[in-house]
Amino acid sequence: MEILQFHFSGEKPVRQKAHAGVVGSGNLEILLEPAEAGQAEVVVTTSLDGNGEIWRCVLQRFFEENPVCVKLEINDFGATPGVVSLRLMQVLELAEEGSEAE
Amino acid sequence: MTEFLEAVLNPGDTVILEGDNQKQASFLSAALEACDTEKVHDLHMVIPSVSRPEHLNIFENGVASLLDFSYAGSQSMRIAHMLEDQTLRVGAIHTYVELYARLFVDLIPDVCLVAADEADAEGNLYTGPNTEEAPTLVEATAFKNGIVIAQVNKIRDKVSRVDIPGDWVDFIVEAPEPYEIKPLFTRDPRNITELQILMAMMCIKGIYAKHGVQSLNHGIGFNAAAIELLLPTYGEQLGLKGKICSHWALNPHPTLIPAIESGWVKSVTAFGGELGMDQYIRQRPDIFATGADGSLRSNRTLTQLAGLYGIDLFIGSTLQLDEYANSSAVTNGRLSGFGGAPNMGNNPGGRRHSTKAWQDMRRGDDELGMGRKLVVQVVETYGAGVTPVFVEKLDAVEIGKTAHLPNAPVMIYGDDVTHVVTEQGIAYLYMTDDKEKRRKALPAIAGVTPFGRQISRAEVEALRREGIVAYSQDLGIRVTDAKRSLLAAQNMEQLVEWSGGLYHPPVQFKSW
Predict the structure, then answer these.
(1) Which of A17, A83, B90, B176 is spaced 20 to 30 A from B239 at the CA atom?
(2) E strands of B230-317, at which residues?
C-alpha cells in the first residue's frame, strides 16, 4: 500500500460534495469536497505501489482540463488509469450537478 | 477407428481435420493420435482452428509434421513453444478465407475428417446449427478425388436436413460420444464494466450514428457485447432504431437478443452456431437463416465472405496497438493466429458500395475516388496490471521472428483502420491524409501511456477543432450516464427473460 499526495492550482469553485466509484478489486472510489480558492489537493491511497508517475500524470491532465478548487480523497484498489479518469470525470459531473453516482 | 485410418492414410498425405471455432471432430482426432507411426507419419495437417490437445500431440508423436492453420485460441501458448523448438513446421498461419481458398488452389487435400450431427445410409450429413466450414472442407476434398470421412452423433434412416450431400462423403462412423462443441461467443453481461459502457456509447453516437452504419460484424469481447446491450436503451434514447445496426454478419451472440426482441435487427447471417441459442433461433426464422428442419444454417466460408465484402463496419478489440494503429493479440509467447478478424478488419479495395457509411469514408474530390469499409478498434489505454495497450513495437514482431514466421503476426494492419476508440475518445483516422498526421491523432486518445504523453495540449486542441479527435464531452456524452443500469440486460437471467425462456445458457454461465 502507498499513500501519495498531490497539489495543483485550482481556479473554479464546484457546487457541492460528491462521491463516485466503488470499493472493489480493479476499482476505486473518489470523495470530493469543495476547497478554498486557488487550491486543489489530492490524497491517493493505493493498493498498487510504484505507480506515482502515472497518478501524477492522470491527475495533472484532469486539473489542466478542469481547474477546479477541490479536495479529493481517492481509495484505489488497482484500477487502471482509464478507470481512474472515468471516476474523476464522474465525480466532477456530480459535484457540479447533483445526485450521487453508484 | 485407428486401424481404419492407418489403412486409408498414406505418409505425407494432406489431411484436413475439422477443428472449427466451435465444432471439433473429436472422435476422429483421438483416433488419428493413436495411429502407429510406422504406418502413418509426416502428415501435412490443415486444421482451421487448432483447439484440442491431440491437434498438437500428433506433431509430438510424429503422425504429422507440417501444419497449416488459422486460429489457435486455447492452444496458443503450446503452439508458440512448439514452433520455437521446431517440433512443428508451419506452412502458414492464414486468415479463414485465405485458408479455405487455398484448399482449392495449392493446399489440395487427400483426406478430410469432419463431424456432423446425423448421417443416413447414403452418407447425407446433417450438421444442425453448427455447419460452420464443413461444406467447404468436404467440397475441396470430394471433387479432387480425395477421401471424406465423417464422424456423426447418430446414424438415422432419414436425416433432419441435408447439409452435405451423400455423394460427397465416402465413409461415416457413429461416434461413441457427440462431437465437442464450445460456447465461444457467449459473454455474461455481469462482467461488463462502466468503462466498456462509456466506450460503447461513444461508438454508437460517434461512429455508428455519425456514419449511418447499417451492416456490420462484432468481434468477440465485452466491448461489442456492451454496444449490443445499449441499442435498446441508449440507442433508443438517441432515436437510432432503423437507422443503424439492421444487418449483421455475426455468430449468434446471446447479448444481441434484447436488440432483436426490440425490433432493431432485420437479419443475422451466422458463421457458426452458439450453444444454447438453438430454441431461440428456431423461433426467429425472420432474422436467422434456418432450414426446413427449423434449425440454424450457419456457414463460416460464406459469412466470412459477407464480412469481407458485404458489410460496412467491423469492430474489434486488441491487446496491442502501435503508433500507426497496427494491432496484434500476440503477447507473452501466445500465438493465437488470426481467425476471421483480418478478413473483416480490412478494406477490400475493389468494392463499390453505395451505402452512406461506405461513401462517408471518401476523401478528397477525385472523380474516381472510393469509399471504404469502416474498421474500428476499441481498446482501453491500459490493460490489466498497468500494461499500456499502445506500444512502440508490437510484441508480434519478435514473436514472429522467434517462431520463424515469414510474416509478423499482425492482426489488423494500421492502414485499414478508420477509427480507434479508447475511454478518452475517438480518433477518426480516415480523416488523416498522411502517415504523420495519423501518428499525431493516436496519442491524443492514448491517455497517460508513454505514447499518449508525447502530444501537447495545444496539438490535441487543434485535432479536436478539426474533428480528427473527439472526446466524450465533444460528443455530448455524460460520463455519469455510463452505468450498468443502462444495459438492456445486466446478467444471464435477464437474457433468458428477453428470449421468452428460449435461450438456454450453457451450465458454466448459470449462477441461479
Answers:
(1) A83
(2) 247-249, 267-269, 313-317
On the question of pLDDT at B361 being above 90, the answer is: yes
Determine the Cα–Cα distance for residues B289 and B270; give it in Å rounded to an integer. Answer: 8
Q: Is residue A83 less than 8 Å (CB to CB) from chain B?
A: yes
N residues, chain B: 512
Note whether A90 contacts B: Cβ–Cβ < 8 A: yes
> Which of B190, B194, B378, B449 to probe by mutation at the A interface, max A CB count within 10 Å?
B194
Q: Closest Cα to residue B153, out of B334, B37, B24, B20? A: B24
Q: Where are the domains of chain B?
A: 2-181, 183-197+211-311+478-501, 312-423+425-471
Class of domain B312-423+425-471: alpha beta
Average confidence score pLDDT of chain B: 95
Pairing mode of beta strands B425-428, B419-421: antiparallel
Of the options 3.40.1080.10, 3.40.50.300, 3.40.50.920, 1.10.645.10, the CATH number for the domain spanning B2-181: 3.40.1080.10
B296: cell is 440454424
Residues in B closer than 8 angstroms to A89, CB to CB, are 472, 479
- What distance in Å separates residue B95's CA from the closest CA in chain A? 32
Option in A85, A101, A102 nearest B424 (CB): A85
pLDDT confidence band for A25 (50 / 70 / 90): confident
| pLDDT tens digits along B202-235 | 999 999 999 999 999 998 889 999 999 999 999 9
Q: For residues B316 and B307, give the distance between their C-alpha atoms in angstroms, rounded to a whole number.
A: 13
Prediction pTM value: 0.94
Nearest-by-Cβ selection for B447 from A20, A85, A97: A85
Domain A2-97 in CATH 1.10.600? The answer is: no
* Alpha-carbon Rg for chain B in angstroms: 23
Instruction: Please compute the mean of the pLDDT values over residues B134-157 and round it to a whole number.
Output: 98
Pairing of strands B14-17, A70-76: unpaired
Which of B198, B381, B482 has its CB closest to that of A81?
Answer: B381
Q: Where exactly are the structural domains of chain A? A: 2-97
Please list, residue by residue across B487-503, b when 16 or more beta carbons sit within 10 angstroms of its beta carbon and e when fewer do: bbbbbbebbbebbeebb
